[in-house]
Design brief:
The protein is an all-alpha fold and 125 residues long. The longest helix has 24 residues. Helices cover 85% and strands 0% of the residues. The protein has one domain: Up-down Bundle (Four Helix Bundle (Hemerythrin (Met), subunit A)).
Length: 125
């Protein structure tokens, strides 16, 4: 039990000491992870697993939307993408459609990779 507890403490510490850009990156990573788990749930015919993890992705995207800084025009573009992803996630959840989740995951990976590049260029990584 000591190892999982130590890992949890490390993870908590990592989150508490992360900068805003690093937290954003962690959220993208989490959304991708949960989307992958949802895909596995569909493949395993585990509807509950798929549903729970799709909801986790939706909550992360909701958080992205809630924290958009609307003083920048690009925020509207991000919001449109997030609204689209939420729509697709709802469809994937209703239909338990793996292909839709793979599409969402592709967009999330692209956004994460772009965020990593922004972090490199602004030296926040």
């Amino acid at each position: 039990m000591a190892i999982p507890n130590a890992y949890a403490k490390y993870n908590d510490s990592k989150i508490l000491t992360a900068s805003k850009p690093e937290l954003t990156l962690m959220l993208y990573e989490g959304a991708i992870k949960f989307c992958n788990i949802a895909i596995m749930g569909i493949e395993q015919k585990d509807i509950n697993k798929a549903h729970k993890n799709i909801v986790k992705v939706q909550k992360i995207i909701d958080e992205f939307r809630a924290t958009l800084d609307t003083k920048y025009p690009v925020a509207q573009d991000f919001d449109r993408v997030y609204v689209y992803l939420l729509k697709r996630l709802r469809e994937a959840n209703v239909k338990k459609d793996k292909e839709i989740l793979e599409e969402v995951n592709m967009h999330l990976r692209s956004m994460r990779d772009t965020w990593k590049e922004v972090m490199k260029k602004t030296h926040t990584a």
